[in-house]
Amino acid sequence: MITLTANAVQELKALLVQKGASEESGLRLGVQRGGCAGLQYTMQVAAQTEGDEVIEQDGVRVFLSADSLEHLRGCNIDYSNDLSDAGFKIVNPNAARSCGCGTSFEAKEEGIEPSYDPALNGTNCS
Q1: pTM of the full predicted structure?
Q2: Chain segment 74-117, per-residue pLDDT in tens
Q3: Contact at 8 Å (CB) between 40 and 34?
Q4: How far is Cα 2 from Cα 124, in angstroms, rounded to an integer?
Q5: β-sheet bridge partners, residue 53
Q6: Residue 24 buriedness (CB in 10 A; 0-12 / 13-18 / 19+)
Q7: CA-CA distance, 87 to 31, in Å (whole number)?
Q8: Beta-bridge mates of residue 60
Q9: What sign has the CA pseudo-torsion 12, 49, 69, 54?
Q10: SS3 string of 38-88?
Q11: Cα 33 from Cα 7, distance rounded (Å)
Q12: Residues 63-73: pLDDT tens digits?
């Protein structure tokens, strides 16, 4: 199950209004190969597609594609208003480690402890 903080719900509602999204729209959250840690999050305002898992909370929807579910189960979505780094933030229990930018992560592998990688300090993020 994915949860959203009150800040994330408020900002998602505002984003949907700003984008002129239909009532069927929500936040599409996915994972794809890339980023400086191996996997990166994708987010966009979109409608539900066939096969999506739908999370509804406090009047907003999050759509998760089937191929991203294993990497997203148990995540918490927050919204930060920091001056230098505002935006949706994902706290992911399935990540062994995350890049300093917060948009890229390495998936946990059972029985393997990740080693420190200085390349993931956020200076190589694009």
Answers
A1: 0.76
A2: 999 999 888 777 889 888 887 766 666 556 666 655 544 444 44
A3: yes
A4: 29
A5: 64
A6: exposed
A7: 17
A8: 57
A9: positive
A10: CEEEEEEEEECCCCCEEEEECCEEEEECHHHHHHHCCCEEEEECCCCCCEE
A11: 28
A12: 998 899 988 89
DSSP tally for the chain: helices H, then strands E: 2, 9
Order of all β-strands in the sheet with 76-80: 3-4, 76-80, 87-91
User: Which tokens go with 18?
Assistant: 């700003």
Residues facing residue 29 across a β-bridge: 43, 64
Cα torsion angle, 39, 45, 50, 52, sign: positive
> Domains (ranges, CATH) in the chain?
3-120 (2.60.300.12)
